[in-house]
């Protein structure tokens, strides 16, 4: 198939630093190329890909030092370029969150598919979607669909990672610690993680960024609980420190309090064989195999029992479950299967006809 | 003429508090209604207008307490509604800054006109505009066009205010003070205003908001210079305090250091008969009649001499110049004339034909 991917322009693909969406696009595009598809990526010019890159802006918006940038104008220009070249592709896969591409492709929604990578409980989304109700959508979890249940959902594809990206650490340090990785925001509930660790008597290591919006919460609620001994704060860690941090952890704590549509760090932990104790929120029930790769809990008491259980899991089985369910190849195959179904629906017999030529 | 106006959804029309764009839209829409046109306003549902309101969102985005809002989805839904009803209007006038409407109307640019209300020196604007080069644009000053000089500019219409909105104060307090009104940002250069006042020996009164982004600048640079006697800081003032503040000032200082495309406060001062001393930046040369309504200067020394001169101006002549050049009625007539030209160009003889029926 001739497949176009259209990435947001906020970060390059892959992102230079943080950017879950752009990382997933990288793995998916590379996976589709490996499967033999002809893939074109519309993205910022500082992107690097095994597909054919169409650089639609000199560099990604966020790290561009130019003081005045228009994200709307940048994305409009990109979408116009995609529209002009639409005939070159069998299917055009959009990774934009808020429907900016719909007006451009309203005469050909069946040639497109959209993966929104974020939460969907924005007030304005259902009203806007109802105006373009035919656009096929793919969710990154079943839970993600809930606030936009009436959309034309054609599949769910869980994220995946390349199997060689992260590997279990053969000889881990013992005894381990509990790990918390992510932004130190109210939504992520680091306070719960600290209480769980304190009451299990295990050390907690926190590797996380404090964003501008989260400073007041951090200084008021989290910082007073960091003693440097039983609760240690490492600041933000780079990609190269992640293996050590997640791979040596006894378990990852993910006690979130928001409708997380996927939770990439959860499968990253699994890739290292590290089990996860997560709060019953968002997509956690879909991502975690209860009793195999982790536990999903509803309370601090539940979490404490879960830590006791999860730290005794066979880490080889955690890794095996990861390989089976969350590989980039599986993700690419899942998406390719949906593209095929969409093409069959759009023009039945089309692919057979093409074979006859 | 049947005229549609399409307002941004960030603030209601008129705005509940601050919002220059939405105030101008109010005056323009009311002015066109008074001229006898059939006017429809697409705006948030908390707007109030003499035109026919099409409420496309229950309330304006900025003050909506709902935590998650999508400005893109909100504006897309509005633009889809405008597009569906396009045949009801002779001309559709957009007040959006960054071209979000272009894809919707690319088959009928000649039926639209766009007034961008902000600065245009954003990196992404020229590249995006080149993809829709036929959309007619109206600038709010000649200077505003400069970063997008190649656009299809069909006219410049300076802003205007209703003549009865602000009136000179008959018996002003003497001796007067110098006034500074606006955000306390680096761009507005309150530090220059303070130095000018200090060196002229006149009192400076500052009425201004300190935005989130400007806090560090305010505390570091401006606050140490406020002594409460020769430099007085009043905080943000409401619409009801503006008459007293501007009307009693000997002159308004506007020593900006950015390409201000218009500068609404400058004509507000003139409405009270208050002359303006402004820096040679942005559209100031177009707005100020040198030696009549104020002076445009290049240096602190120049500003000091200008204050000496301007405070001796005949304030009746300042008001007279305001009435001649910056009334809302003049603004509405100017826009209506451009609409007429656009319609004649789009379909010559059309209006004559309509008269014959």
Automatic annotation (TrEMBL), chains A, B:
Domain of life of the organism encoding this protein: Bacteria
Domain Glycosyltransferase subfamily 4-like N-terminal: 18-132
CDD domains associated with the record: GT4_AviGT4-like
GO molecular function, one term: glycosyltransferase activity
Keywords: Transferase
InterPro entries listed in its UniProt record: Glyco_trans_1, Glyco_trans_4-like_N, Glycosyltransferase_grp1
Boundaries of every Glycosyl transferase family domain copy: 171-299
Protein name, per record: Sugar transferase
Organism: Mesorhizobium alhagi CCNWXJ12-2
Taxon lineage: Bacteria, Pseudomonadati, Pseudomonadota, Alphaproteobacteria, Hyphomicrobiales
